Amino acid sequence: MIKRTLVTIALLAVGFFVSLGYSALLPNSEFVNAQTNRRTTPTQNTQVNEVDRQFFIDAGQAGLGNIALGQLALQRSTNPQVKQFATAEIQEQTQVKNDLTRIGSRLGVTPPTTPAPKFQASLARLSQLEGDRFEQAYMDEGGVNAHLENAALFQRQAALGQNPDLVAVANRGLPTIRRHFSTASAITKYQFGQVARRYNNLPNNSGTSAPQGNIRRTEGGDSLPENNPSPTGGGTRLPLENTTPTRTNR
């Protein structure tokens, strides 16, 4: 009788300890949660969605393209304001490039090594310009257009991206993008949606400037010559037909 009682107690004790071990494996267990957090943190940083993947490619290609444009501006421009802007742009894009390289090594992917075709085309065209026309074209393309595109790219990533490291890159970059866009807009007198100048219908070796209008001056440096904007925010004014009704004598 005593042995049977002792065996029963022993079985109950074994069952109790087994149940404790099993409960430690349940999702609500503090032990499991603590271990899960340590194990899943690196995994979460490697999770990406389609927005992340496209941002990784587009931001990498844009960075290379804008670095190349900035380097060209440092070689060609004699305007201190343009050179200062190009230097800041190279620094901005180099930081993004380094961030993507670091994150890419963790994700097991390699950032782009060449600019997108549109940047290559822009570089080819700007390489044919000189003097004021080059400086105007650089500030329009590398200043205004590049930051309009980057603003949309980085905003989308910050809002819809899944990878926390890439989202952090976007959030860090947006204030710089906004600041550089404001500077470029002030220099070029940019208004949203306007095409102030055209560069694809000029002679290949154009060192002379096209007829210029008012000069926009901003604090802290020289300013670029500007074409007179049209009343609708466009570039050179086109001749308009006379739409005034003709008065008929009766």
From TrEMBL:
Region (Disordered): 201-250
Gene3D superfamilies: 1.20.1260.10
InterPro entries for the chain: DUF4142, Ferritin-like
Biased composition regions of type Polar residues, renumbered to the chain: 201-212, 241-250
Residues in DUF4142 domain copies: 52-186
The protein, known as: Putative membrane protein
Organism: Nostoc flagelliforme CCNUN1
